[in-house]
Fold each of these.
Amino acid sequence: MAAASRVKRLRRDWDVVVYERTQWVSFALCGIPYHVSCMVKRLSDLIHYPLEEFTRRRGIDVRIETEVVDVGDGYVVARRRDGREERLEYDVLVLATGARPVVPRGLAEAVDQERVFVVSHLGDAERIRRRLEAGAEKAVVVGGGFLGLEMAEAIRSWGARVTIVEKLGGLLPTVLDEEFSEHLTRIVVGVEGVEVVTGKGVSSIEGGGVVLEDGSSIEADIVVLAVGRRPETSLAEKLGLRLGRSGAVAVDERMRTSRENVYAVGDAAEARSIVTGEPVWCPFAQVANKMGYVAGTVIAGGDARLRGVACTSATKVFGVTVAKTGLSLAEAKRLGIDAEAVDVEAGTKARYIPGGSWIKLRVVYEASTGRLLGAQALSGDESGFWRVNVVAALLEKKADVWDLFETDLGYTPLLSPVWDPLVVAARLALRRLGGRR
Amino acid sequence: MAAASRVKRLRRDWDVVVYERTQWVSFALCGIPYHVSCMVKRLSDLIHYPLEEFTRRRGIDVRIETEVVDVGDGYVVARRRDGREERLEYDVLVLATGARPVVPRGLAEAVDQERVFVVSHLGDAERIRRRLEAGAEKAVVVGGGFLGLEMAEAIRSWGARVTIVEKLGGLLPTVLDEEFSEHLTRIVVGVEGVEVVTGKGVSSIEGGGVVLEDGSSIEADIVVLAVGRRPETSLAEKLGLRLGRSGAVAVDERMRTSRENVYAVGDAAEARSIVTGEPVWCPFAQVANKMGYVAGTVIAGGDARLRGVACTSATKVFGVTVAKTGLSLAEAKRLGIDAEAVDVEAGTKARYIPGGSWIKLRVVYEASTGRLLGAQALSGDESGFWRVNVVAALLEKKADVWDLFETDLGYTPLLSPVWDPLVVAARLALRRLGGRR
């Protein structure tokens, strides 16, 4: 919708048609856990704009409950809910097909959407909430990523005891470095009514619960699978578009695919890492929206580029804010970068102000140059999110730890310590860089 | 203390002597209002580190209650509390003499520190609190800057009715653009028990209160003068150091003054604006500390520079967070820069999340190039502070509005809207830049 809206804003007289498989457009997928928990009461609250905003006000021809089932050179074929098909010719095509949940091998048949759920679109939010309303005492969430954590908190808010099963060693294992993952795991383990099982995958889901790889089982009235997502590229493949190593559609900075007049945006497309310059898959809403904006601008004849993304991600669960931007130390090393990290544990306000919170912060940089590579934070207030965002801004400009030291963060006792944890981290890094620079 | 500590860390065997006029070192001047309000109960809580941290642990020879009264080529003369003087020779001198409160013409005699106060050091915090403990029903705070606002809130917390008198047109008039100053003024005017009188100076302070320039008067049991500060440069002048246009000591990026082996740091010294490249006076704690760190490093033979500061400033008063970095639109125009601004009023969380707050944000940029010049924000939560800090990071790297658009701020519904107000501001600016770029 971001791309369509942008085209229509710049080219009022162009025909813009949007096909949407579900009944919802402009929906907040990230809000699903908050609908499940009843923090967001109505499902309709998760719709950013009503359909009329796009159709009447913006002049976009939105065709909901209509799935594009075929695509070729200059045309698409779409199937309406009643089964009838329509063919539409295009001058320019934008693929914004998103991502779909991964269902682990052997578990696909267990997904019945009555007791065993995936989280794919708004309808799932409604069904999971209905299930919880009907009563559930024991829940298993498979997957300790962002969605798994958020769903676990949402289900726990109904009073059900929740077990999070994560195959790898800790929570958010593909986001955070091990030490941070472990720290988060310890916090979540400490939440009443929540258990965390790590290092074990799920081998099957049966009547009474979940069976783990080691043969042990966990009873469950409700199971939510949240083990990850994959870009939805079936249409892209039909068009023969080049896919990247991540499996998402390869695009340039202008969201152009390998085929002329075909663009890809959102969770279906890759972006370029501002840190490495290499393609990455960052299926995050804020990136998706910017991709849409850029594609729409370019299609309409304007100049826009998304030169890079830092893959900043965040959540707030069980009273902890988690945020990360750029690379973790482990990711940097895996890429062969000579990376180092400095850790700071600090208060988030002036020491003498009551009610300050805590932050555990890591800043990752290149050992030879001091160039910033990333940051991650856990914090008891929201400041960890923002401190990571400050690093995201510096990553955008390829800054180094000296820039971080110099960045003139404001200070007032109620809002931060006079030596901000970010500046302390920079100082530690500078001390280590010492003679090397 | 930052400079002294740094030298001692790098040069353990050097003799480092610190003279301090008061009995306190490493004190949190910015914390004074919070001691007055009793949020910080003990005055000693405002001491970052006890004296022994510096003397015993760091090996610094700190001589408190000893004022340097003369300085010459290679020596200082200091007077102890008992009146005895000592002379000390130095190889390197660091002036960290800070700033002193401005007392408006004609009001100096009224300052009795029993009923009429300035806020200069920790002792003032104690005296003002004693006065409030003794009972005060009506207070006048002269000056609507950061300190005036914070003192007004602190005094109001005792139940006294407070009138803030600001000579210029609104609160924080030299920090914020007029529209933002007016918005803040409206909020503060709405606080029960607080009045704001703008556009009128104080002509005298008499027994029963304050007399304004227009002849009207305001009753007061207690008057706090908070009309600004000036760099304390009497020693610098004795040494014949070059002062900048601001009146503070001119220094280079390494904190070196016009005289060899003499450094100046903190509120007594100028810094270089990262935005304009010109010297500016930014008497803020976080800048002062960095200056000390840089001077100490350089003195000890290391390499360090403070290439520029954004003069980021902030406060949280009466439930509003105020923050600013770089230039306001008015400041930019006064400097002859072809500047423009975009304003965004938005929520600070995903729209559907209950309990989100509000932000009013301005981003200032150069019209011809889109280069960022500054930002200011008022917000109901602390996110305005952090959004301004994100811009401070971008200013550090001389970023433009396209960089701001691209900065990959994390998104999660509980912490921010998916189109962050900063990104919305960037979009608005890009739209305006349109053909020009």
Amino acid sequence: MSKKSYVSMSVIRRLPRYYRFISELKVQGVERISSQELSKNMNITASQIRQDFNCFGEFGLQGYGYNVSSLLEEIHKILGIELQHKTILIGAGNLGKAIIAHMDFEESGFVLQDIFDNNPEVVHQSIQGHKVRSTDTLSEYCKKERPEVAILCVPSDVVLTLCSELVENGVRGFWNFSHMDISQNFPDTVVENVHLADTLMTLCFRLKPSLEENN
Amino acid sequence: MSKKSYVSMSVIRRLPRYYRFISELKVQGVERISSQELSKNMNITASQIRQDFNCFGEFGLQGYGYNVSSLLEEIHKILGIELQHKTILIGAGNLGKAIIAHMDFEESGFVLQDIFDNNPEVVHQSIQGHKVRSTDTLSEYCKKERPEVAILCVPSDVVLTLCSELVENGVRGFWNFSHMDISQNFPDTVVENVHLADTLMTLCFRLKPSLEENN
């Protein structure tokens, strides 16, 4: 499937964005699109787009552009969305609940199987059809159910202990909402950190009046 | 305050990460740190760290390293956190509520003033001490209260109309959780998009078994 065995993180990070834009085109009934048109919509140069798609093989035709459906199907395959990784979520507080309600996991390649919390008042509650389990039962659960991925909606101070337990029990991917970067501590796992405060601080910086004058 | 009038987006995007790491050091009681030690913790080269900090002026001493408190204070100033931008949040659904409960806005440079929703069942409810207002009153509110920033927790199909109304009424910054990129449509505003599904798809791609073998 892949033309090059090594694809840089910057290309990888653009793939979901392509997927999102091209999905939108399909919804709008667009059948084909050139790299120039994509470029205008996405604020990426046409040459960058051609180069990115080229990493995974040729799927455009000179003078015709890209067939929207085929392109979408290809990116779907490249992203591995059909793999539908077995996933658990830990920490059913406000953020955890919002993520459960807000995200379409299967659309992104994951099946949310179970939810865990350490608060006795939350354990046994039902969230979107999932009964919340106690984190006391986590190791036992993992040994039996073999989830591959954990979504971490827990405070920083518990995240390292929790991840050690999960990694020992076969979890190899983390979608991490805690404030702590865990990539360094678990180098053999795949970690995507979501640091919401980081993007908020970036917004703060970019709003500075002095920048408006200078840039 | 700033040494260079133009600072690249990649440096800017690293600043909140520095702030987060150095805040953590301060909490741990660390008084000074070298670029080498920071490098080990952050997975950024020491030379990159020195170069980044150099963009904003010199605040380290050869052979001594950086004073943690001063460094933190400097980055706080550089990020403009003291500006405390007047902010409103629109869309008090699951995601909106979680953001209100989860984020420490003032820590990131914002004051959440009011919350809006178009659902009559939600309007007048109280969330963390804020009474939810109707989006029908948005223009009138903006003319009077002059919020600078809006947090958008609304569906894609309403986001463009909503932003037009807000921009007309003086809002110039958006923290956008809707699925639609609005940067292209409002070039004179500052937009930080948070596309949660993008990071989830990136995780999916990075979990592909073929990548483990190749990389």
Amino acid sequence: MKLKDEEKHDRLLAAAVTVLAKGGMANFSTTKVARLAGIPQSNLYIYFQNKQALLEAVYRMTVHQQSVAVVAALKEQEPLTTQIVASVRALYQFAIAQPETVTAIQTLLDDIKLKHKWGLKRDDLANQRIQQLLQDGVDQHVLRATDQNFLRYFLARPVFHYADGVRVGLYSDTPEALADLTAMIMGAVLQPDVYRAWYLERD
Amino acid sequence: MKLKDEEKHDRLLAAAVTVLAKGGMANFSTTKVARLAGIPQSNLYIYFQNKQALLEAVYRMTVHQQSVAVVAALKEQEPLTTQIVASVRALYQFAIAQPETVTAIQTLLDDIKLKHKWGLKRDDLANQRIQQLLQDGVDQHVLRATDQNFLRYFLARPVFHYADGVRVGLYSDTPEALADLTAMIMGAVLQPDVYRAWYLERD
């Protein structure tokens, strides 16, 4: 077996993100990824056993990048509602800055079967931090006591939709539009009484 | 020009829905659609000028089918909040019954640029009825006064996500899960005071 090369490993992952973002799941192949990365396809298998392993690596990497971007905006001493608003804003900035990464994440999440199979990422500390935030939110009766997948869905997907819409001119990139979107997300995820208090006090 | 044949026209549209649902936008081609429909590709162009025209026809047909399913569940004499809840339930049943149609709609909506260009469907009376419901909701201060695209997004996409999740076993198909989802959607789209009143009085 050839020696692994971290730079090539990362180049393959980056190429995989691009192939996935441009062509979707049905078009994804290790042939295309290797070609885009400029690495012989046979060498790709040194790094990733097969297409599924490559997709799973893309999933872990992109979710980690997204989690890191969100966690950087969280301040533990702040109220949970403030942290959730900060996470929406951070996710929006991440989606605007990294459109291919976010498209790849959405493509992978849409293939719910895969996500279901892959499950949680125990070694992803940033992602763990977000899971803990959600769990704390439920335990403290700030977030609704429902399936955590529902909470994660409402906290992320509308933000990606808004960023996509800004990119093509469907939405305007204004503080007012982001504030509207944030209020809708908070209405969806917060306990009704907590939402009301937050809504009346927000600036 | 050969005589058009309504049955062939519909067969091509149905094949286009399947090709779109299975392979996504990047894989979509008139070659694949003609092959699946069992109609020579040259004949496809009798019905649809080009790929874009075929995609637009798919968009109009699937959105119309979705609109008809929703409108059938609306009772004009009922309060707007009751009608909105009924629309969520109807959309869920539609998504469970017509998974390919709903996947095709989502694929087309994700290509926001296309949707933006196609704009509204003035001759689709069922869709008009839903637009009117949303406009009435905003005018009567029941729905939030925000971009109607935000309202439509929150009213439909989480329902499709839930139906997809039920199909692969991520979510359970229970009245409780659908009630949770409905409450989250209502929290997102209703004016905060209207939401509070609805939430306290719901059965």
Amino acid sequence: MSELLDKFKAYLAETTNLGYASTLLYWDLETSMPKEGFKGHSDALAYLSTESFKRSTSAEMGEFLDKLSAPEEFDSLDADWKYIVKQMKKNYDENKRVPADFYHDFIVAENEAGVAWQDAKAKNDFSIFAPHLEKMIDFSKKMMGYMRPDMEIYDAMLDSYEEGMDSATYDRVFNELKEGLLPLLNKILAAKPYDESKFKKEYDIPAQKAVEKFLLEYIGFSFDKGCTGETEHPFTLNFNSKDVRVSNHFRTDNAVDPMFSAIHEGGHAIFEQNVAERLDDTVAGSCHYLGLHESQSRFYENVLGRNINFWKPIYAKLQEIDPDFKDITIDEFYRYINSVKNSLIRTQADEVTYCLHVIVRYEIEQEIFRNNVPVSELPALWNKKMEEYLHITPPTDSVGILQDMHWSDGSFGYFPTYLLGTIYDGMFLEAVEKDLGSIDTVLAEGRIKDITKWLNEHIHQYGSSRKPKEVIQAVCGREVSAQPILKYFTEKYTKIYNL
Amino acid sequence: MSELLDKFKAYLAETTNLGYASTLLYWDLETSMPKEGFKGHSDALAYLSTESFKRSTSAEMGEFLDKLSAPEEFDSLDADWKYIVKQMKKNYDENKRVPADFYHDFIVAENEAGVAWQDAKAKNDFSIFAPHLEKMIDFSKKMMGYMRPDMEIYDAMLDSYEEGMDSATYDRVFNELKEGLLPLLNKILAAKPYDESKFKKEYDIPAQKAVEKFLLEYIGFSFDKGCTGETEHPFTLNFNSKDVRVSNHFRTDNAVDPMFSAIHEGGHAIFEQNVAERLDDTVAGSCHYLGLHESQSRFYENVLGRNINFWKPIYAKLQEIDPDFKDITIDEFYRYINSVKNSLIRTQADEVTYCLHVIVRYEIEQEIFRNNVPVSELPALWNKKMEEYLHITPPTDSVGILQDMHWSDGSFGYFPTYLLGTIYDGMFLEAVEKDLGSIDTVLAEGRIKDITKWLNEHIHQYGSSRKPKEVIQAVCGREVSAQPILKYFTEKYTKIYNL
């Protein structure tokens, strides 16, 4: 190994330590910090994040990357470090092109937009958010212009969340999915809805926590390499492959939601826990492709978790851990967790309508960035699309266009990755079944860890070192397509709703 | 305010942020970190602690302190900052006198001694620990020689944990206490012991956690300025007065221990939560006098918590939160929590015999540092003193001289502060009663927060800015004496044991 690479690794290790502390400050802020601890906490977080950012954009870092990118050094690197140096150089150059003043203004605008969004949502008044949304659109365009001057703006945005996936691909697979899904949804909505009244009761919270632990262990989450916490919104956070944490929320009126949050976050976490150890603390050591990441959480949550065979080997155990489920049969449970409804809120949607919630957002982002539709027209556009695809009109903007925070922080191009992950899932399901046989059988036999092992081997171990397109190609041997997930939806719901 | 002081405060703020992150890394390591996360965690902790230490011993820090100590600047400081600058200058100069090589060797020896101590304790073989103990004694002497060349070694050690308390004072009050306590203990041990069999059962853990929360709130711990965690050994940790955390341990075979751990750590935490806000993030903003700190935890745990009137207003509530206590009357509970036994382990001792456990250690430390008694003779000395004071001979060194880890990390002079805190408590009790009347009445009327308020006002708000002797003088108007706590013990246990 070259002396230069050794020195670079030592430099990275210090940056890793600063990042480690920032990550922990964030985790603690969400899970434990007492109310009045906020100032000390955020001061420390701001200081360490700034130190960490300074190092990642320092002249020293630039020199390391220049030298390591020069052919004589680069050629001597192994495949992992070739990826790492290339990726870091790309990030470094992109960040360096952003003027410091502009970056500062962007952060200020983002914070202001976040406050305005919360206010607008609380007061159900889009006009409070509108000028901030305009500014974030404008600033995000400029940001992409600095970072990626050679790319079309919205393509650049999509690419920044799912490298290598352009809008031509998104358009193709989303349209494919929409065309197949709309008629299926219409048939489902015409069928008899499931009566959920039996599930409306008061649930015990310690039992829910015990179920969370049981489910995480069951699907393959390692408690030697992770732990859980409680937060308002569930999320996954990773320090490195040895410490990956998931959070959850518990309420007395719903004990099923936290089960699926646990399985969903568990899927994200299993990905991160199984990235090859040698990539730890490098840019390859964590998956930063949001679509690919979401494919794993949704694979566990939906493809596996909403399959009746997932529950067959463990339903009696679930009833034992949480006696609130003693009077609910596995068949009732299965119907409940696959109840399809045209509802207003994305985060509460079932797996079928969820896709359309994302398509609404994707199409509106295109209108914004490709057709320059003014912000003032967006609420009406939102409602029109909701009516068209989901046959429901938001009674207020708070439960319509104001429901998600993403646009307030300039995360344009982020929503589509949620659906892309679902589309990947159809393809991964085919690939898993090709190797392991019907997942119905594997699950019914309680061998879910065989599936986890398969995913570890084919997807997780590579972290970010294989880009999504390369993963799809390697695992499925063809281009991304929406047909497999459409087939999954059609077969599953035709049966459930007797269509 | 002087420009220099402003600059100094800005410099300190950065150090505070690094320290904040280190503190959080430590808290998380104890409460949450998964097993395999250890390396990443300890790397980050080592890096940040080193950075923090570098800053606190930097040339820049030295310059600030020199300039601020010069009369023209010093005289313009307010009383708080006079204390802060003086204390920091003292610490800085002491640290600077320790050669870096020696400091490094000390840390290595300390780590090795810790491992050897664990091994020796597990294998019940003092000879494994003996050479390491010898080295730690030698290194600790040298360390004090560097840091405090003008002081007698053991006095310097005592002073480093409880500034201003010399061994003349310790000798006087410990002997006073011993003389009074030994005859009392002999009478108690001759009386009928309390039958504890009713308390031997299986306790529910979630109920214990609910009780912990209830008790902490009841005594005045603020959950807006603190939170709880679970660790093997309970402890208190503070970031600043706005974020003070206590940990506890829970087991199914004992639900009473965690109550008193909660009250004990709650006492430490209430101290830290109530230091004046203006002292936050300075050397005065946290109490670093161990005896004074322990006086507060033991005041809540013993003087208040083991008084039957503490429980009268809340015992029914306790039984409601934890139904495992439904069949135990308040009188049975009171007798159980004040059961005096001559047992082997300090940390499990009742409040009476606890004093003698500490005296054994204090007298052995004197033999080591004043009379150069060789390490090989210490186990026999330990057993002799246990027999003499407690009429019990440790069957093995593991439950004798090897039971505590303190000596393995060179914490000589630390144990005595535990007892000094208890002695302060007798004096504080007198002072509280002078102002508020009998604590029996205050407690029985559920007005424990009046006592907390009194302690906040007379002790807590000053943090470290008043030294223990000054606190005792200000609060009690006289020198420290063991008579008040002896009176407390004698009256209380004469009644309980019908002596």
